[in-house]
């Protein structure tokens, strides 16, 4: 993320720091396992880790070295190998991919040249270079793939390869279960956040009727009550497509959960543990989130409702960058950046609370919304259609807020994520809402 008011040298420093932070994380995720683990496909839903590593370098070369600096291609013959639209994930292990050490050398070579380009970059002249957008885009791209690689680590079998301290313990949250978000217009999206991606633009006014939204994400304990009440056996809670999905795949609980006598266990990064009751529920698909909300007599919030709850400051009648204001997130605000390998307990991070009293809107778990992934009025694809435009439509549902696996550079109050409603391997949870009578 970057403040619109930053000058050239501050932008340069932030771009350098964002790129280095992303590469340090990439190195951690690809150095904690050996070569065979890097080249293996741990799930047909995911790429081999070595594909992500070289793809990160290839995208950086294409945008920072070729598009921004006008350099000749270093290895043009590999462009199609690492084109995400040319080869579905399930096919990538069969491609003649760069071996791990060669992929590391290639990514390091590209990074060295990119930092040289950044050292002399002028942050004006074209949309790509304005306010360092291309450098911010590449830092976000790498961090998004780092999150994808972390998902791969969760899916892989065998002992743990990653460790991190747990979040600080938090007292059991005893505040109100939900809060009222007043009706009326607010500004959704952004037109002046320099590193915002195309689907977050442009800013526009959106009218939202009054509604109530959960103060915290739905917890494991609350979701277990849905399970114990026969939630997975009762078709009335599910959409027709969701019920068919449950029956077809024999779903009975969130992904990675299993029952052991009277308790639930889960597998988390190679370790089996008792499901912690006060953490936000994780690894549920949209159909599961929607069914829980119906069972609870509520619904999923729309994307506009979620963003109003996260950004609207009634005192100033304005939309802020984050729930807590305009300052970049710190550890006191949100659980981000893979500092931990799990969500923080529900009710954590009171410093990150919104003016309306909603907590944990940023970090911890991606939150499913009721909305399809659609363009905002006045949307224009930039810098390429394949980032957002080709995904617009009712097939994809919007997720908001980020997770513990998201870096701050790729998470803000306007950031939009999307996925198919069947996906559960992602770090997804949810909170519920209900309309307020007027």
Features:
438 residues, 2 domains, four-stranded mixed sheet, paralog of FGE (formylglycine-generating enzyme), globular, Four Helix Bundle (Hemerythrin (Met), subunit A), alpha+beta
In short:
With 438 residues, the protein is an alpha+beta fold.
Describe what you observe in this structure.
With 438 residues, the protein is of the alpha+beta class. It folds into two domains: 8-155, dinb family like domain (Four Helix Bundle (Hemerythrin (Met), subunit A)); 176-438, paralog of FGE (formylglycine-generating enzyme). Helices cover 30% and strands 14% of the residues. The chain has helices spanning 8-31, 35-39, 49-68, 100-119, 133-155, 220-228, 240-249, 286-295, 303-311, and strands at 178-181, 184-188, 204-208, 211-214, 257-260, 263-268, 271-274, 312-313, 318-319, 366-373, 393-400, 417-419, 428-429, 433-435. The strands form five sheets. It has a four-stranded mixed sheet with strand order 12-11-10-13. A three-stranded antiparallel sheet has the order 1-4-14, covered by helices on one side. It has a three-stranded antiparallel sheet with strand order 5-6-7, with no helix packed on it. α1 (8-31) runs parallel beside α5 (133-155), α3 (49-68) packs parallel to α4 and α3 packs antiparallel against α5. It starts with 7 loop residues before the first helix and ends with a strand. The mean pLDDT is 96.
